[in-house]
Amino acid sequence: MGNLEPYLEKHIDSLMERYPVLEGCRKDLASAYLIMEECYGHDGKLLIAGNGGSAADSEHIAGELMKRFRTPRPVPPGFAVKLRSIDPVRGEGLARNLERSLMAIPLVAHEALSTAYINDVDGLGVFAQQLYGFGRPGDVFLGISTSGNSRNIMSAVIVAKALGIKVVGLTGADGGELAAAADVAVRVPETETYMVQELHLPVYHCWCMMLEDRFFG
User: Fold this and answer.
1) How far out from the chain centre does Cα 21 lie?
2) pLDDT tens-digit series, residues 56-76
3) How many angstroms separate the CA atoms of 28 and 6, rounded?
4) Can you spell out the DSSP letters for the chain?
5) The whole model's pTM is what?
């Protein structure tokens, strides 16, 4: 992994100014970003999972990546022409309103699949099953666990490694099994669940801003 370009480093500098308590996470935060940048640079995708509040964070991250976060992301001119040629009226609206995406799939969002697998097969393997179905070599799995020991997250980590998918962990200070197994783990310096979650949000917002700046800025 290389070094960050100055226009990307500025986002981490801004984060540290606002949250000085995260200064110890700077290196891992940058390394995790570079893993995601490499993934998207090769047309890969981010697969995200967590439990409870971290499940909500998974969907939040996907929402920031699949549409604009801060920067406009108009479709390429050639695609806009195709849309208009297929349907001049609807195509014009789509060409104007569609936004380019960085593909991100929250593994917490598929209720029918999840509940069927939990009921029929294995409650702790629900993320692993989805990762096995959606994941391809070159993708990235972002596992969010405040303790670092969520059993369903760790099952997904094993599948990710078997598929050749890199693992980024977002955890609390203890790190747990996730920090030990991940390619890179950002361990925010809190241990109580809600305090860990309060620091996870600015971390992943920083990643989203950096990715958007890199690919659409």
Assistant:
1) 22
2) 999 999 999 999 999 999 999
3) 17
4) --PPPHHHHHHHHHHHHH-GGGGGGHHHHHHHHHHHHHHHHTT--EEEE-STHHHHHHHHHHHHHHS-SSS--BPPHHHHHHHHHH-HHHHHHHHHH-B----EEETT--HHHHHHHHHHT-GGGHHHHHHHHH--TT-EEEEE-SSS--HHHHHHHHHHHHHT-EEEEEE-TT-HHHHHHSSEEEE-S--SHHHHHHHHHHHHHHHHHHHHHHHH-
5) 0.95
Q: Which of 166, 150, 164 is nearest to 55 (CA)?
A: 150
Domains in the chain, please, with CATH?
Answer: 6-73+101-216 (3.40.50.10490)
Express each pLDDT in 139-167 by its tens digit. Answer: 999 999 999 999 999 999 999 999 999 99
Residue 2, pLDDT above cutoff 80? no
pLDDT tens digits, 18-27:
999 999 999 9
